[in-house]
Amino acid sequence: LQLEGEEAEVEELTLWELIERERYVRSREEAEKYLLEHPSSYVAHLVLGMAQHYGEANFPKALFHEARALELFEAAEGVQPTPSQPWRWHARILVALTRAHGDLEHYDEQLGLMYRYNELYTPQLLAELAWPLMKKREFAKARVAAEEGLATGDPYQIERARNALCAIEFEAGDDARDAVGCREAVSYTHL
After folding, report:
1. Are 86 and 5 in contact (CB under 8 A)?
2. Angle 25-42-132 (CA atoms, 0-180°, nearest 5)?
3. 87-93 own/partner pairs: CB under 8 Å, 24+ apart
4. Which DSSP category does 55 fall into?
């Protein structure tokens, strides 16, 4: 089933399906083959980056291919795709880049991409902002980001926000708030 904003070649959609099924070795091999004949495929570069990230834990290679995917996408479709364009690929590339930068501890770059994503797409990355802000020791801003995630009522955001609040207070050295935050994070369950 192809989603709106997910237009791509059949072979590219097949590559994406491999990533969704977490078949990282095969997706890497198939993306490398596809890129030999289609070097400007932003989908194949995204797939190769994600395979490197999640299958090989090769964060620098993941970052290279995901950055290349963004460059190729924006050259073809622009920096702010419209609903009639394959915008979903752009959103996926931005999220992939935020994760690669985060794992490489490039927190300024990660935050910049998260803010950019939030300007263009929903649901926004709210609680996710807390972690890089915490790592930059901007605890007040990190708490605000986590609280904004909690306020959405979205179980995904709540889970990340509670986890972030636990980590923020630990990093900030506030044992009392850390104990409360961690207890709430551990006890949170959603159906």
Report:
1. yes
2. 80
3. 87/5, 87/121, 88/3, 88/4, 88/5, 88/6, 89/5, 89/6, 89/8, 89/42, 89/43, 89/46, 90/120, 91/5, 91/117, 91/120, 91/121, 92/46, 93/42, 93/46, 93/66, 93/69
4. I
Burial 91-123 (b: 16+ CB within 10 A, else e): bbbbbbbbbbbbeeebbebbbebbeebbeebee
Greatest Cα pair distance in the chain = 58
CA distance 54 to 101: 14
Per-residue pLDDT 10s for the chain (191 aa) are: 667 889 999 999 999 999 999 999 999 999 999 999 999 999 999 999 999 999 999 999 999 999 999 999 999 999 999 999 999 999 999 999 999 999 999 999 999 999 999 999 999 999 999 999 999 999 999 999 999 999 999 999 999 999 999 999 899 887 777 777 787 877 876 65
CA distances from residue 27 to 20, 63, 68 in whole angstroms, order as listed:
10, 16, 17
Q: Which residue has the tokens 């795709």?
A: 81
Estimate to the nearest angstrom the gap between the alpha carbon of 57 and the chain centroid.
15
For residue 95, what are the CA distances in angstroms to 169, 176, 182, 186? 26, 34, 26, 26
